[in-house]
Each structure stands twice: as C-alpha cells, then as structure tokens.
Amino acid sequence: MVVLRKTSLLVFFLFLLLLLESTFEQQTSSLDEKSALLLLRSSLGLRSRDWPVKGNPCLNWNGIKCDQNGRVTKINISGFRRTRIGNQNPEFSVGSLVNLTRLASFNASRFYLPGPIPALFGSSLLTLEVLDLSSCSITGTIPESLTRLSHLKVLDLSKNAINGDIPLSLTSLQNLSILDLSSNSVFGSIPANIGALSKLQRLNLSRNTLTSSIPPSLGDLSVLIDLDLSFNGMSGSVPSDLKGLRNLQTLVIAGNRLSGSLPPDLFSLLSKLQIIDFRGSGFIGALPSRLWSLPELKFLDISGNHFSDMLPNTTVSFDSTVSMLNISGNMFYGNLTLLLTRFQVVDLSENYFEGKVPDFVPTRASLSNNCLQGPEKQRKLSDCTLFYSKKGLTFNNFGQHEEKKSSKTSWLSHTKIVILAAVGGSILLMLILIVLPITVSFCVRRRNRSSTSNHPRGRHNGVGPLPPDETLPSRGGVSINFGSLGSSFTYQQLLNATKEFSDSNLIKKGQSGDLFKGVLENGVQIVVKRISLESTKNNEAYLTELDFFSRFAHPRIIPFVGKSLESATHKFLVYKYMLNRDLPSSLFYKSNSLVDNGLRSLDWITRLKIALGVAEGLAYLHHDCSPSVVHRYEKPFLLLFFYFQDTISSSLILSLPMFTKGYSSK
C-alpha cells in the first residue's frame, strides 16, 4: 500500500514537471516570437500606432493573428506606412521571420520593399501557405527556393519589377491555387508542364514579355477558373487542348501576337465561360459556332482582329442584363441578326455589315464605319462594293438597288437622259431669268416696310437653330475594356468580405447604390457599392461608371479594385478603402496632437495640399479626359483620404460616385 502511494506521487510529480516544462516552452516560444516581431518592426520601420511596443502582438497589433498557443500564424502589413526614419533607408529586411516557425501567411502588398526576394522565404518558412508581395517595388528574379514551399496555396508577386524566367520547378508546388505574376518584366516561356499544378484556380501572367506559344498542358488545369495571359508577346495559335478547362469563367489572351483561326471545338466544353477577351491578337477566319450559345457569357471582346463571318440569325433565352459585345475592327458582314438581342451594350463599328438597322438592335450600339443603310459615318460605296465582290456577293448599294440592263438599252437610256437634261436645263434657266428679278424686287420692298415697324428685337419666331439646351440626344455606343477593370469577384466572395452586407458594415446609403466596408481573404480593405437594377437609372449609371474606370485612371481618383456582375438583380463595384475618412471628418477634428508622426488634424499647410489635390483631380477630369468629365458633386464628404503626406502632392482621392452619358455627373 505504501509502495503504491509512493508510485502515485512519483507519477504525479513527473506529470507536473512535464506540464511546467511545456508551459515554460510555450512562454519561451512566445517571447522569442515577440522578439522576432519587434526586430521586424524595427527593420521595416513600422509605426507604433500599428505595432505598439508595449502591446501584446496577438491582441493589440494590427495584422497579426496567433493560434491558441500564442504562436504567430499570419502577418498582414498590406498598405502600412513606414515612419519618417524608416523611409530614409527602406530595405527588404525581414530576416527575423525565420523565428516564426508556424507562420502560414505573409501579406505585404502595397508596402515598399525594394530589392530582391530573400531566399529565406523558401529555405526557412516552410509552413507558408500564402505569400503576397504584390506592389512592393521588388526587383530581381523569382528565387528557386520558393519551390520548396510545399504547402503554398497563394503566390502573388504582381505589379513589381521582377525579371527573368519563370522557374520550371515552380510547377512542383502541387497545392498552389492562385499564381499571379502579372505586371512585371518576366520573359521567356510558360513552363511546358504548367498543367502539373492540378489545384490551380487562378493564373495571371498578363503584362509581361513572355514570347512563347500557349502550352497545350494548360488544358489539364481542370479546376482553373480565371486565365489571363494578355499583353505579352506570345505567338502561334490557340491550342484546342484549352477545351479541357471545364470550370473556366474568364479567358483573357488579348494583346498578343497570335495567329490562325480558333479551333472549331474550342468552346465545346467551356459552358461556364463568362468573360472572353481576345482583342488585338491577330486571329483570322470564322468564329466557332458554339461561342454564341455559351449560357453564362456576359462579356465578349474580339475587337481588332481579322475575323470574317456572318452573325447567326438565332435567338437565345439567356439572361442579357449585363451582356456586352465588342466585335469592332474586324470583317464581319451581312445583315444584323436577332443574335444581338442577347447583348445590352454592342460595338459593331469598323466592319462591313449591310442593310437597314432593325429595331431590336440595342440603343447603345456603335455602328459607325460599316455599310449600313441609315446611320451616319459609314464606309464609301466603293469600299463596300469591293469587299462584297471579293466574297462573291453583291452589295445592296445602301438599299438603292439598280436593275441590270443590256448594253443597247443602257445606251438608249443614256441618250434619253442627256436630251431630257438639256431641255429641262433650258426651261429652268428661262424661269430663273424671269422670276429672279421679280423676287428680288419684292424682297426689297418688304424689307423697307419691315424696317419702319416697331417689332421687339430678339423675338424668336420658331425658325432657325434651336437654343443650346434643346439639342437632340445622340445615339452612341460604349465599349468597355474589362481587361483594365481589376479583379472579377464572385458574389460569395463579397458576401464573406462584408459579413453578408450587414448593417455594421454599412457606410452610407445612396441613390446610385449602398456602400459597405469589407475585408478580402488576403486582408485588403475594400468598399463595395451594391447597385440594384430595379431602377433604370442605376442600370445606365453603373455601365457608364464601368466604362469610365476602364478608360481613365489618376492618382486623385479613387482606385477601382474590381467588380461582380454575376447577379441578375444586383451589381457590385469594388473600390479601395480610404483609411482617413472624408474631408469633413478631418477638417473639423479638434485635436492638434501629433501621434506616431501622423497628422490628427488639418493644419493650414495640409489644407493647402488638399486644395491643390482637388484642383489636380478636377483639372484631369475636365481637361485631360476625352470626352471631358464634368463632376458636379464637389461636396466635402465626397473627398476621401488614404493618408496625409508632407509633400506637394497629398494623397487626396476624388470619389466619383455616379456618371451619366457623356461622363457628366448629375
């Protein structure tokens, strides 16, 4: 009995010792990780308002997430600012990250990190699942060490100055779901075995200098949703293997040096496609017939190619609330068909369509430089006749058909016309000689009588030009470049970001839409405008706003992040969130204290910078945009701030909530 009691006590003390040791190790690890974070704070020059020295990193530091044991798992410094001292000599100095052995996510997007990517990301941070270094001013090449991150799911290196090839070993990252290398200087070819990334859902290699052909193995990415290879120097034809991308929703290969015609079966299995952008890619021939019957298609831009085909005369029953078609700058011909009823915004300019314009053609259609009967600014008769003759067809001569006659009949008719013209001309000349003097005499006498009367000056008698405000509405077309409209979000993504558009996230209700604050999965803060299509005015306004942001961008205009157009009843526009609220919130702030080198109120120097910023923004809208944008909502609450800077150019952003035709905000 005594032995048993001693044994129990011994076991209890051993358990207590192990528990204390485990607790000590956790505390030691937490202290080591806090020390690592303090070193990171110092090396990057972060401000105390974001990472206070005396606070608990897991509880009080912005962008830090920890597990239940207090170990750091996520770091998000996206959009953070350095202190003034940190700005004096900024470096990509993140060596202390090696002590964060459970780090799963590192997001430094839009934080200035000049220099190459350190090798430690691949050699030491083997638990990383998310690495977002977009818009960080990174240089150098993509390090081979990144290929050791076997758990990596998201790799975003977009909008930097990275050069060199895409490492072939990058395809060993079997868990990768998002790969974004866009807007860099990457050259060479796309790895031939890119299809090995079996879990890849989004691939963006746009705006680089890739010069290879499109690898057929891309067709093996069966779960791929978005593919963007636009604005490179790729050559060759589109491989028919791409028909294997059964889940693809966005296909953008615009602005390359491709050639040949599209494979006839390219779209045979791509039933989920919503956005297709092939503009300016050098394609020829006819379009695959399956293209016109894609059930989810909402945007099609094949402008600036050499497609030559007739539109099929078919109707479809699919939703057309947001469908947009741009086939301008090709060689389409024939009559306008019922197919156009599917699309809401249409650009058919710079083709060879003939005949009358049917009533079912959308009112926003652009029809210039065709061979149509009725609209202005059409091609010359000789150009249309030549084009149709090369096709073995007869042009309808703008609706003025001529009967074919024998050469003898034609000669006789010509002789009759000459004789009749001579006789008619002589009679007309005699009438002019007789009537003209009488008419002149009558007008002179009437003028003299009128000069003695007392009619009031300036009376409008209904004859002559209309006043300026009585002009007739013009019929114009809108071609929206979706390739420059940021990301395409799903409705579910925006639901998650805004907590299902809860009242706690509501910023403001407006006539053109309700504004909600949100946070994306990568930690980026956004503002989502939810627009109801129940109002015809809203339906017009959001399309014009999309058109504006596809054409114009300026540091004084709120950055457009993306859109979600999949819903039939609501549309969603996504903007960058401005941290320092609007002008009245800062203008009437009473405190004059300085905290962490940031201005808490508006001194007179800052107010001068704001005035200059407003002037720059309005000058751009009024004078640099074509057509000019007249923004009539210059109210203080529409002027938003990201942060203040002690430079001539403040970070004032002009918020443009609504546009109408002609880009005149009412």
Automatic annotation (TrEMBL):
List the Pfam families.
LRR_14, LRRNT_2, PK_Tyr_Ser-Thr
Where the protein is mainly located, per its record? membrane
Return the SUPFAM superfamilies for the record: L domain-like (SSF52058), Protein kinase-like (PK-like) (SSF56112)
Q: Name one GO cellular component term.
A: membrane
User: InterPro entries attached here?
Assistant: Kinase-like_dom_sf, Leu-rich_rpt_typical-subtyp, LRR_dom_sf, LRR_N_plant-typ, LRR_R13L4/SHOC2-like, Plant_LRR-RLKs, Prot_kinase_dom, Ser-Thr/Tyr_kinase_cat_dom
Provide the transmembrane region boundaries: 417-444, 637-659
Residues in the signal sequence: 1-25
Q: Out of the domains of life, which is the source?
A: Eukaryota
UniProt KW Magnesium keyword? no
Residue ranges constituting the Protein kinase domain according to the UniProt record: 501-666
The membrane topology noted for this protein in its Swiss-Prot or TrEMBL record is:
Single-pass membrane protein
Which terms are listed as keywords in the entry? ATP-binding, Glycoprotein, Leucine-rich repeat, Membrane, Nucleotide-binding, Repeat, Signal, Transmembrane, Transmembrane helix
Concerning SMART domains, the annotation shows: LRR_TYP
Q: Which PROSITE patterns match?
A: PROTEIN_KINASE_DOM
Which GO MF terms does the UniProt record name? ATP binding; protein serine/threonine kinase activity
Q: Where found, per UniProt? A: Membrane
- Residues in a coiled coil are none
- Give the start-end ranges of region Disordered: 449-471
Which Gene3D superfamilies does the entry link to? Answer: Phosphorylase Kinase, domain 1 (3.30.200.20), Ribonuclease Inhibitor (3.80.10.10), Transferase(Phosphotransferase) domain 1 (1.10.510.10)
Q: PANTHER family annotated for this entry?
A: LRR RECEPTOR-LIKE SERINE/THREONINE-PROTEIN KINASE-RELATED, RECEPTOR PROTEIN-TYROSINE KINASE CEPR1
Put simply, this protein is called Protein kinase domain-containing protein
Source organism of the structure: Arabidopsis thaliana
